[in-house]
Amino acid sequence: MKLKTTVTALTLAATLTLPLAACSSGSGSTSAELPAKVRIAYQIIPNGDLVVKNQGLLEAAFGDNVTVEWNLFDSGGNVNQAIAAGSIDIGLVGSSPVSRGLSSGIEYIVPWIHDVIGEAEALAVTGSVTSLADLAGKTVATPFSSTAHYSLLAALADAGVDESSVNIIDSEPDAILAAWKAGQIDAAYVWNPVLAELLADGGHILVSSADMAAKGKQTYDLAVVTKAFADQYPAAVQTWVDQEAAAVAQILAGDQKAFDSIAAEAGITADDAKAQMAGYIYVSAADQASESYLGKVVPDNIYAAAQFNLGLGQITSVLPEADYKACVVATYAGAVK
User: Fold this and answer.
1) How far apart are CA 79 and CA 76, in angstroms?
2) Please, which residues bridge with residue 141 across strands?
3) Which fold has domain 2-117+219-334?
4) Across-strand partners of 94?
């Protein structure tokens, strides 16, 4: 069943050579071969990645000769660590963690946008907190090195609140929920589905990532593919992007199958899945390939995030702007039929 991606691979051999060479480990290979295994890092975030997993779209596209290994992670920071350790080929990482990963020397490309983050990621607070200034002396949980962490720091900076006056602790989503219910934290910047559970348990939103986007701090959930894997298996990357595009097409069409798939993977109802998904923007393959997304805006955003993280002391150095832009590859999305 390898024949399913042979034609695509031959087409990509010419179109992907330049982008990959600009952000590659130097192999320059455009092999049409498929790997024996694809190791994927996913997160419980209501987007097309869960649709692909639940419906077995990638397994069907690859056929019996390719094993698809799905590995669950809590945050992009942890995915970065796994990629750096050589245990993951493709992963879901937020835009701020991508900027950190590239800045620290992790070699990967960005060929796909899982979603544009809006109100589905936010700072949930208890009743005693009514402003960002109220967070001084309070305990706020967020997964470090995540888009939520980035947005939290951006919100504090925008409000003129010294982050050192806030007890910001590193906590993964499930642990955040447990700490919230135990009364151990006063606030948390996190995403759905945990965000929805905090709100159902008496929390309210003080600021969302949609608010921060309006202030120039947009965040995304992005796909990353190791350069070594992309150089050796461009056809496999295209097959993966094709299935992600099919999943997004289901979402944009309002297909109940997509809501049911996300609900099943997240352990929530289909109605809850649909409600939580309203806080994200999903982008078609054709639009992703444009300058409004992968063609220009996303690489600009990743570079800006790196500069912001450097200014806050979250990273120690920033690469030249061209290096970030070279690692965002729009040609895979552009090749989706």
Assistant:
1) 5
2) 169, 188
3) D-Maltodextrin-Binding Protein; domain 2 (3.40.190)
4) 221
Homologous superfamily in CATH for domain 121-214: Periplasmic binding protein-like II (3.40.190.10)
Strands 121-125 and 187-191: what pairing? antiparallel
pLDDT digits (tens, 9 = 90+) for 171-195: 999 999 999 999 999 999 999 999 9
The full DSSP string for 313-336 is TSSS----HHHHHHTB--HHHHT-
CB 91 within 8 A of CB 82: yes
Q: Is 189 helix (H, G, I), strand (E, B) or coil?
A: strand
| Phi, psi angle pair for 149, to nearest 5° | -60, -45
SS3 201: coil
Domain boundaries, the chain: 2-117+219-334, 121-214
How far is it, in rounded angstroms, from Cα 86 to Cα 19?
22
Amino acid identity of residue 140, one-letter, is V
Which residues of the chain are under the pLDDT cut of 70?
Answer: 1-32
Q: pTM of the prediction?
A: 0.87
Phi first, then psi, for residue 167 (nearest 5°) are -85, 90
pLDDT tens-digit series, residues 314-330: 899 999 999 999 999 99
